[in-house]
Amino acid sequence: MLIMADINIGKAPPNLAVLPFYATGALAFVIWSFLLLISAESLTGHYFHPHLLTIVHTAVLGWGTMIIFGAAYQLLPVICERDLYSSGMAIASWYCLTPGVVLLAGSFWNFTTGWMMISGGLLVVLSTILYGINVIATSRICSHYSIQRLFLLTSACWLLFTVVVGLLLAIHLSHPFISKNHLDLLKLHAHAGIVGWFLLLIIGVSTKLVPMFLLGKSSKNKLLLLSFLLLNLGLIAFLADGFFFGGHSLRFGLYALLILIGVLCWLIFLGAAYKNRVRKKTDYLMKHTFVAFLMLLLAFAALPLLLFQQDLRWVMLYGTILFMGWISSIIFGMTFKTLPFIVWNNHYKLLSGKVKVPLPKQLYQESLIPFQFYFSLLALSLIIIGIIIQFVILIRIALVIWCIVGWIFLYNVVKVLLHKTTIQS
Amino acid sequence: MNIHINDPFFDEKIRAQSGLYKVIDPELFVNVIDLGLIYELDFNEEGKIKVTMTLSTPHCPMGEAITNGVKNSLEQDFPERKVEVNLTFDPPWSFEMLSEEGRAQLGV
Question: What's the pTM value of the predicted model, to 2 decimals?
Fold first, then answer.
């Protein structure tokens, strides 16, 4: 038996490097849900709409990226089995990202191009650089190779690419210098973010966390490498073709197919872990994650409509499924699989075994999670139907339900964050 | 962890085990004994308890809380002894290490 007395088992970063991201992310979710509710009719129009640009940027940066940064700072030490390279840089990235999102999203609402939009974009780029340095420097001292590390590193590079392109587009809006069509570039910018940043990162983190939560094992590691190669190949081909040759629906379909096969490789890996799991009971948080996977596949199913029919509703449907269905569902599930444990650790890790302490799941109102799950499912179903049949009232009803989901989520996040140490008798 | 009736520290180990039943893995809600995380309790050295244990996942984020729980529980039950926790992943934890009770609690 090999004993490792000095093994690193819990070098968590300080609270300030993680918790503000969760708090801001939850608040951003409530804000963009409300903005979407008051702009519901924009979901039946063109996607290049000032209000939609505000909502999308609040959702992807203020909600998705914000929570992912916080979770990544917590999980990087777990994946790399080493301390986070710099907690100070993690905190600084929050100070850059938060005002960056406010300036950027604020400037889009009335489409005020100029210093506000550009400085917002600059702050987001700065925040991404700080995040990227932390990811690279933490994984540089990684004690062993892992496919998760490769996904995390590459996703950070794609995020930087995405936000730099975004910044250039923001500059171009007030000081035109790009000869290409702005809308075509927007398509490339969006997909670099969706596939390069969100998809690669979610794959990297989920292949570590899902087997850990299910107590399951998957031996299909080679599929993850194949997934990595296909996703990057598909994305690079899409971007290069789109930028240099203007793209073509058939070729775009081929690149999407490569990406879809990559996604299926990842899902087969997770399926094997699910099949071999010890924990048979699947809780609502894991169900949120499964809904997210389903939504991702649904987005792929909507792609042929998007590529071969000149109807903007499919663009809207595709975006809604991705942002509300896929990214939001995965965050709903994973937030309460990580945040209560982070806070619990801070309060109780020294008290455990001495006195009776609450369990992490008792730090939030667990009874609200089924409501969060079913309401989000209902809202997603209604909005999908509403967009397909172009029925604004149905979209608005869906968004009212979605806002309720947002408040439930925010309530539970705040409850966890404000938890006071309690000793049970 | 098996405790043999002929073990010279049988009483101590039973007492230690009773305390460790109260140390819960916060993620799985099952105690460390039924999870099979404790491999060995060594009382041979005077004034010391050496615990050899594992975690369900290497580098589990709750690892420090679990090992602290084991340490705290044993220090409470044996204030005259110093507790040393040694982690090992050899052999790694597996499903077979769960007790019947642990399997029932996990719904296996």
Answer: 0.89
